[in-house]
Specification:
Elements (H helix, E strand, L loop, with lengths): L2 E12 L10 E9 L3 E5 L6 H8 L5 E10 L2 E2 L5 H7 L1 E4 L6 E5 H13 L5 H14 L10 E2 L5 H15 L3 E5 L7 H17 L4 E5 L3 H7 L3 E6 L2 E6 L1 H10 L7
Parallel strand pairs: 3-10, 3-11, 6-9, 9-10
Antiparallel strand pairs: 1-2, 1-4, 4-5, 7-8, 11-12
Helix pairs in contact: 3-5, 5-6
């Protein structure tokens, strides 16, 4: 198998504060091979969303030590836009509203930046119609302003449509199941499965609290993140232990 992504002993803390702040990530190491799905689970405050944001070079966090590799390159100092153009994608836990910018305009700009393809609005609309149908989205959806007035399910389905159309190599999904009812969760999970079927080398880092999404996606590896460190790695049996016993069994 081909190594797609690796982090070695990653430490990170909030950036630009007047006083030194404690590290949130305290030595996270992870290797993702092409085509693999890695699930990261942990209690509130364990560093899951910090990890997702740091992997995409959010200015809210600074890497204090450790290294991030992507397709063999050291990208620790790469800014967000360069990582995105190289094929890294982040689906946000709380997607932001962008008034005045329609979904179709956003996709056109993002696709042009990602792949240098300047599709017309009509071409992009046609390309997206199949995915809107798969994700249970009305065809007029792409004319709405990005995330403005969207339900939680619409926001998450829109993120999966972006994932499908932009064709990244690595997808970081930060609590994609957050706020979804069981029907919406199944639609989103089905969309992720279909994206992976179309692009079998796609690597996925899936951050979640709940086993129900893992049941839908069957990750290759499950990691338990507690207090900024991965304290245990394994398979779906770890999710089953969490469902039964909670995180206390993994605290040191």
């Amino acid at each position: 198998m081909t190594e797609l992504f690796r982090i070695d002993e990653l430490h990170a803390r909030p950036a630009e504060t007047d006083t030194p702040t404690p590290e949130i990530l305290r030595g996270v190491s992870l290797t993702v091979q092409a085509g693999e799905v890695h699930a990261i689970m942990g209690p509130n405050g364990s560093g899951k969303s910090t990890l997702a944001s740091t992997l995409m070079a959010s200015p809210e966090y600074e890497v204090t030590s450790g290294t991030i590799f992507y397709q063999g390159d050291d990208i620790t100092d790469w800014p967000t836009d360069v990582r995105a153009k190289a094929g890294m994608f982040l689906a946000f836990q709380y997607p932001q509203e962008i008034p005045g910018v329609s979904v179709i305009q956003f996709l056109r700009q993002a696709l042009s930046a990602r792949k240098g393809i300047d599709l017309s609005v009509l071409e992009l609309r046609l390309a997206g119609m199949d995915w809107m149908k798969r994700l249970g989205m009305d065809s007029s959806f792409v004319d709405r302003y990005l995330n403005e007035g969207f339900s939680g399910g619409e926001k998450k389905r829109n993120e999966i449509m972006q994932l499908a159309i932009l064709e990244p190599e690595l997808a970081i999904l930060d609590e994609t199941d957050s706020g979804l009812d069981i029907d919406a969760l199944r639609i989103v999970a089905k969309g992720i499965r279909e994206v992976r079927a179309d692009r079998p080398t796609l690597g996925v880092v899936l951050i979640t609290h709940y086993q129900r999404l893992l049941d839908e996606l069957c990750p290759d590896h499950v990691h338990i993140l507690v207090d900024g460190r991965i304290v245990k790695s394994g398979g779906m049996e770890l999710a089953e232990i969490l469902e039964r016993d909670g995180y206390e069994a993994f605290r040191t």
